[in-house]
């Protein structure tokens, strides 16, 4: 089996989960395939000294970046330390990262890559809070704020924190196959795998949570009953308000209209069913409130650019398609 070396960059105020999440995925993959050499993982700081994470944990690196050999995969995590990068670290990345086989950043680690000029001319993402800064400070980077991860050639960047696990699972699937990646995902009790173009937000996170109990209860009820009558009139009656008052209040408190919120919930639910079940498109369309498979197809094409069957094929691969 091919040996892949993985070097993880450490620095003060690094986000600990940006480090440990992907490391657990790659180490788990090596164990799952029965070959510990599948991934040889090392951590390194500039001078080999321990670093203190943003949560207060101390990480002890395996060695110094200055002494590290060129890895197959270089992983740059994020954290508060990326806001005030050590110029020596940026110089090291600029000089050494181009020689690696694969360059990966998690969360705001993309800011370090951008500062070193490594993302110029490439598509990239980062934590949603840092996307505007990345785009404004580094105009040569094609920033995509919505996806949980973006892969552009040998460079892969992910959104905040747990998105690094999604990206690591995608890389393991590429290296060792879906079965190994699925074994790791099950062990970590995470999904295999949220596709890279999935939004950084669920429907509920994308919208603000209403402050008033009746509106907040309606939001929750919608997510639990996507198949129901979710017209403004029906939801207004549930909230005990007139349709006009309800629509105004819902938009004021959540930042989106009731109709748009319902669209997001139904699409999100349909995607989960396509990913996790063998149910046919017609059955899923009814379970999600679309009524017909054609209505669901239109919603998918509008939001994602692909039909439901194609979405399932891309997510699950041909070997995992349901029988017809």
TrEMBL record:
CDD domains listed in its UniProt record: GATase1_AraC_1 (cd03137)
Pfam families reported in the protein's UniProt record: DJ-1_PfpI, HTH_18
Segments forming domain HTH araC/xylS-type: 216-314
Keywords, ordered alphabetically: Transcription, Transcription regulation
Isomerase keyword on record: no
Gene3D superfamilies recorded: 3.40.50.880, Homeodomain-like (1.10.10.60)
Coiled-coil regions, chain positions: none
Keyword Nucleotide-binding: no
Protein's name according to its UniProt entry: GlxA family transcriptional regulator
Organism: Streptomyces xantholiticus
